[in-house]
Design a protein that fits this description.
The chain folds into three domains: 290 residues, no CATH class; 114 residues, no CATH class; 59 residues, Arc Repressor Mutant, subunit A, CATH 1.10.10.410. 40% of the residues lie in helices and 21% in strands. The protein contains 15 helices and 16 strands. The chain has a nine-stranded mixed sheet. It has a three-stranded antiparallel sheet with strand order 5-4-15, with no helix packed on it. Strands 3-16 form a two-stranded antiparallel sheet. Strand 6 and strand 7 form a beta hairpin. Helix 12 crosses helix 15. The chain is elongated. The mean pLDDT is 87.
């Protein structure tokens, strides 16, 4: 490669408080437009903001979970810019004194561990939402919903340590897991609770000076982050190869076309005319408060992943998948308590369960197959009642109906045939019907064993116990 890719991410995470950052309005999603508003979040004259203490507590928790140093004192500032969805004409944010500094997140891509630095975490209020008339059958008009105005956010700014779109996606995956485990955010990207701005630049391999960067705004899925970065890297490569210069600008990603396009020239910090917010006093996070929040931290994804490897003897990959969300990790551990075969459970959860959830666009919290039902199914395999292949069929029906596996097995007559005399009779029948294949097998073509097994399974309509079939076939063919 002629160029080295340099990526930094700015992630906005909505904090899971019941009320907004500076007023008592609800943060509930899905309310009618402008229902969750008051004179404070609408920026009416003569009102004053009052800081929500829970917002600060959640920000401290996020800082500690990402190894940031919580600052003893932080301060809000006014970030001045005009946009229709910003009713005050400025945003209350943090600038020179953020609440958290110098953290990191560990990621692993292609079995290579890497530490991604965090520059800062700061608090701010969200803006409203513009709704364009084309989406409402009123082309040429735009509408503003201020429900989101004043919803508390933390902005998590990474160092420019990421070197590929794959690393960026893994970083976001780990960050989302951390925020989910600490329960500071619901991380619902469809509702806008987690949004990402990606900065990307290219520089000649070996050069230490950063290239000119572009920012891709408002990416609301990990897939789109990766796709947008891949396109932008390709675009910048072509610009540089032609001897032109990359323009510093803000771009948007069109998911339907798979391209980025220019939105506006990139603002610098001085364009916002930051100055300290005169209506709010500085935030003081003393040691006792920070220590109390630290004591409330749960077992975090990285810790849980290591424990799954040592306690359950799972491969690193399995442990990584199972700990991507707290709900999935809890589901797995609930299963282990009922059926002490961790690797078997891991295979079923990572394979059949997650596949069905994806196909049905469901989360693990909505899964109709409870840990008790899944382990009941695996016990039926373990005691020989059904085969692994039958279990796949039963599981698919469990996902649809939510019925117990034993009830499905009985209703569909899927009980495995283990009766020795019945199985030996089937083996005799298959061998008698295929004398040429028998002669070839005895002549050294051992691979024909799978043919004979298949014929017996066909004769039994898939209900013969495969292990017993193999044993009886070997006995008969060797005699």
């Amino acid at each position: 490669m002629k160029y080295e890719v340099v990526i930094g991410l700015e992630v906005h995470a909505q904090l899971k408080t019941r009320s907004k950052i500076f007023c008592a309005c609800s943060t509930e999603f899905g309310k009618p437009p402008n229902a969750n508003t008051c004179p404070i979040c609408l920026g009416m004259p003569g009102v004053l903001p009052v800081l929500n203490k829970k917002v600060v507590e959640y920000a401290i928790k996020a800082c500690l979970a990402t190894h940031c140093t919580v600052q003893p004192m932080s301060r809000f500032a006014r970030k001045n810019y005009f946009y229709p969805d910003l009713p005050k004409g400025y945003q209350i944010s943090q600038y020179e004194l953020p609440i958290g500094l110098a953290g990191y997140i560990n990621i692993q891509v292609n079995s290579s561990p890497k530490k991604i630095g965090l520059t800062r975490i700061h608090l701010e209020e969200d803006a409203g939402k513009s709704i364009h008339g084309e989406n409402l059958g009123r082309p040429g008009y735009s509408y503003i919903d201020y429900n989101r105005t004043g919803v508390p956010l933390i902005e998590i700014v990474s160092e420019p340590d990421l070197r590929s779109p794959a690393e960026a996606r893994e970083y976001l995956t780990q960050l989302k897991a951390i925020l989910g485990y600490t329960e500071v955010s619901d991380c619902n990207m469809e509702e806008g609770s987690l949004r990402c701005d990606a900065n990307v630049s290219l520089r000649p391999v070996g050069q230490t000076e950063l290239g000119t960067r572009t920012e891709i705004k408002n990416l609301n899925s990990f897939k789109f982050v990766q796709k947008a970065l891949e396109y932008e890297i390709e675009r910048q490569t072509k610009v540089l190869d032609q001897g032109d210069k990359v323009v510093q600008e803000t771009r948007l990603y069109d998911a339907d076309k798979g391209v980025t396009f220019s939105m506006r020239s990139k603002e610098e910090a001085h364009d916002y005319r930051y100055f300290p917010e005169p209506d709010l006093v500085p935030i003081v996070c003393d040691a006792p408060w920070v220590d109390a929040v630290r004591q409330s931290l749960p077992e975090l994804p990285e810790q849980k992943r290591k424990r799954f490897v040592t306690e359950y003897r799972l491969p690193e990959y399995d442990a990584g998948v199972l700990t991507r969300s707290k709900a999935l990790a809890d589901y797995f551990e609930s299963c282990v308590k009922l059926f002490d075969q961790p690797k078997t459970l891991s295979n079923w959860i990572m394979g059949d369960l997650l596949r069905e959830l994806k196909n049905n666009d469901q989360n693990i919290e909505d899964c109709p197959v409870t840990p008790g039902r899944l382990t009941d199914l695996l016990k039926l395999i373990d005691d020989g009642t059904i085969s692994g292949k039958m279990a796949k069929t039963v599981f698919e029906e469990m996902v649809v109906s939510g019925k117990p596996p034993a009830k499905i097995v009985k209703a569909r007559g899927l009980t495995q045939i283990t009766d020795e005399s019945a199985l030996r009779a089937m083996v005799e029948e298959v061998i008698a019907a295929n004398p040429a294949q028998v002669a070839d097998y005895k002549g050294g073509k051992d691979k024909l064993m799978s043919f004979f097994v298949g014929q017996v399974m066909k004769t039994s309509k898939g209900q013969a116990n495969p292990a017993l079939v193999n044993r009886y076939l070997k006995d008969k063919l060797s005699s």
